[in-house]
Design a protein that fits this description.
It is a single chain. By secondary structure, the protein is α/β, with parallel strands linked by helices. The chain has two domains: about 5-125 and about 295-325, Alpha-Beta Complex (Quinone Oxidoreductase, Chain A, domain 1); about 130-265, 3-Layer(aba) Sandwich (Rossmann fold), CATH 3.40.50.720. Helices cover about 30% and strands about 30% of the residues. It contains ten helices and 15 strands. Strands 3, 4, 5, 6, 7, 14 and 15 form a seven-stranded mixed sheet that branches. The chain has a six-stranded parallel sheet with strand order 10-9-8-11-12-13, sandwiched between helices. It has a two-stranded antiparallel sheet with strand order 1-2. Helix 10 (about 305-315) links the parallel strand 14 (about 300-305) and strand 15 (about 320-325). Helix 3 packs across helix 4 (about 155-170).
């Protein structure tokens, strides 16, 4: 597989609105020790990409300045020390950055093979979402069969994935959304939908005995309400703060009811931590995909050079499921 010297990529020309994304010609990156080069076919679009574009989520040291945290495609070249992959292998990968381009590099341990029964478009939507959901709902949140699980933003890529994984694990699932259409999509996945414009998720969960686990990406005014919605010994896991990272809560309730409040972000974690998550995805989540218990809910597809339109679609919050860029 010949690798060109240059490639097309989408660059953040300056912090700002979606229109600051512009096509540029860049040198194809070279894989270093323990890395692989991927010829990108699809790149997933995620909220952290928009945060980076706006100037509020800088890439870690050594990562590409290009946005894009997940992709699918084919191994194009191997860095020194990589023996588990071969050029031409179909893969998807969690990236430290650089997915909005025709070629991207990442640690070989963060790559997962795309089996014959999985198409590359679907595979390109999986890594960032599945790494985030599995590590926070299962590894950090400890969700078990029979528990009550609430996820906010239930119609998002994270939300639709969390609903399906939780149901596959045997949990009873509740999810919030802001329209009848989104609530219908949530119900179709087997969760109890709560339209936050018409009802109060706190009252709904309290009537059911409280949530054993809540996955929250809203923050702000939801923080104190989440505490009220938890069952005794419940766990609250934060993965984003779309409404703000500061809130006032009654910590006496945390103590008296033995609540656990935690959270994480994926991108700053060590390569070893991400590799451990990748192994769990291969062992536990890929079988869910093969059996049909988990599927990607596709919202829309845009060419790479129309990444600005993809970001506008995401930030409108009108989407249901995943937005993807077609690269190769």
């Amino acid at each position: 597989m010949p690798v060109p010297v240059q490639m097309t990529a989408m660059e953040i020309s300056a912090p700002g609105a979606p229109e600051v994304l512009r096509p540029v010609t860049r040198a194809v990156p070279l894989p270093t020790q323990g890395e692989v080069l991927i010829r990108v076919v699809y790149a997933g679009v995620n909220r952290p990409d928009a945060l980076q574009r706006a100037g509020s989520y800088n890439p870690p040291a050594g990562a590409s300045d290009l946005p894009g945290l997940e992709c699918s495609g084919y191994i194009a070249a191997l860095g020194p020390g990589v023996s588990e992959w071969a050029v031409g292998d179909p893969v998807c990968a969690l990236l430290p950055g650089g997915g909005y381009a025709e070629y991207a590099v990442c640690p070989a341990a963060h790559v997962i093979r795309v089996p014959k029964w999985l198409d590359l478009k679907t595979a390109g939507c999986l890594p960032e979402t599945c790494f985030t959901v599995w590590s926070n709902v299962v590894m950090r949140g400890g969700l078990k069969a029979g528990e009550r699980f609430l996820v906010h933003g239930g119609s998002s890529g994270i939300g639709t994935t969390a609903i399906q994984i939780a149901r596959a694990l045997g949990a009873r699932v509740f999810a919030t959304a802001g329209s009848a259409e989104k609530c219908a999509a949530i119900e179709a996945l087997g969760a109890t939908a709560i339209n936050y414009r018409l009802g109060d998720f706190v009252k709904v969960l309290q009537a059911e005995g409280g949530a054993d686990l809540i996955l929250d990406m809203v923050g702000g005014s939801y923080v104190a309400r989440n505490i009220k919605a938890l069952a005794d010994d419940g766990r609250l896991v934060f993965i984003a703060f779309l409404e703000g990272a500061k809130a006032e809560i009654n910590f006496a309730q945390v103590m008296m009811r033995r609540l656990t409040v935690t959270g994480s972000t994926l991108r700053p974690q060590s390569d070893a931590a991400k590799a451990a998550i990748a192994r769990q995805l291969r062992d536990h989540v890929w079988p869910m995909l093969e059996s049909g218990r988990l599927r990607v809910i596709h919202d829309s597809e845009f060419p790479l050079t129309e990444a600005a339109r993809a970001h506008a679609r995401m930030e409108s919050s009108a989407h249901i499921g995943k937005i993807v860029l077609r690269v190769g």
